[in-house]
Amino acid sequence: MKLRFILSEVGKGLSRNRAMSIAVVIVTFVSLLFVGIAGLSQMQVSRMKSQWYDKIEVSIYMCANNDQTPSCNNQEATETQIAAVRDKLRSAELAPYVKDVYEESKAEAFKNFVKIYGNSPLGQWTTEDMMQVSFRVKLVNPEQFSIIRDEFTGSAGVSVVKDQREIVEPLFQVLGKARGLSLGLAGVMIVAAVLLITTTIRLSAMSRERETSIMRLVGASNLFIQAPFMIEGAIAAVVGALLAVGTLFVGVHVLVNQWLAQAFRWTNFIGMREVWIMSPILIIAAVLLALSASAFSLAKYTKI
User: Fold this and answer.
1) pTM of the model
2) N or C: which end of the chain has fewer CB within 10 A?
3) How many Å apart are CA 87 and CA 98, to the nearest integer?
4) Between helices 2-16 and 18-52, what is the axis angle to 10°?
5) How does pLDDT run across 221-230, given as a tens digit for each residue?
6) pLDDT for 5
7) Whole domain around residue 180: which residue ranges?
8) How far apart are CA 242 and CA 78, in angstroms?
9) For the chain, where are the E strands, in sequence order?
């Protein structure tokens, strides 16, 4: 009987404040959609880092013939200078940071160059003597690139030290900024959702003030009186959350699986699994948001 009464009161409240309930659904949908985008962006960054950071290498390029880098002064690296870099990379001092070292000779560098540019004018004009010896260093922790850079930059015979993170780091930064923007917009919309839910519950409570007064007189508990109002807000918020989840599923399927994953095959993208992970988080967040806003509104305005 109590449950039937509560549900009937919920139905009355939603029908009386239909426009406000729809507004709550829309605002909750938009705010949680941005939260979901931010969460998926963070998952994408984490996935790409786990995929690429273990493969990223630091390359130490020795001076080539007529190398105009200031440290080379148009002089090719000598065998003594190359040996000095080789020995330092294998020294006990760098052993805690260096996982593996691959040395590429001029002949190997030219062979790889021909594979890429062999049929082009540049490939036909370039000779093996113009290549440079290089060392590709795999680090124990790719974040410690600066140790290798500081150790070898400016060393005799070293032209330049490059970190492959320079290739993928800009993409991480873009995704990070998208995540930050999404969180900022989500924060604004969540504030709007809280204000709208409190207003909706307040109007609903005011329209049934006589009924709630009678219920108090006959000994109804605060929870029994508040439950219909709180359920109203929760239902509207959950509908908004479900719309946000559905939009994320469609967005990941169309934009990520069918477009980005096909256009950028060199990396892995998030999929439906990540959306399933975000779904309960968004729904629980919607319920907590609605219940907290409803409880605040009832305590402040209806004095129940």
Assistant:
1) 0.63
2) N
3) 12
4) 90
5) 555 556 666 7
6) 43
7) 2-52+169-302
8) 67
9) 57-62, 98-104, 134-139, 158-163
Residue 205 CB partners (closer than 8 Å, separation 6+): 212, 229, 297, 298, 301, 302, 304
What contacts 6, CB < 8 A, 6 or more positions away?
Answer: 224, 227, 228, 231
Asked if 200 and 231 touch (Cβ cutoff 8 Å), the reply is: no
Total domains in the chain come to 2
Residues 119-133 have pLDDT tens digits of 777 667 778 888 889
Whether residues 147 and 104 share a domain: the answer is yes
Four-residue CA torsion sign, 81, 83, 89, 94: negative
Rg, C-alpha atoms of the chain: 31
Cβ pair 304, 225 in contact under 8 A:
yes
Q: What does the pLDDT average to over 79-91?
A: 90
Tokens describing residue 77 = 């690296």
Judge if 26 and 75 occupy the same domain: no
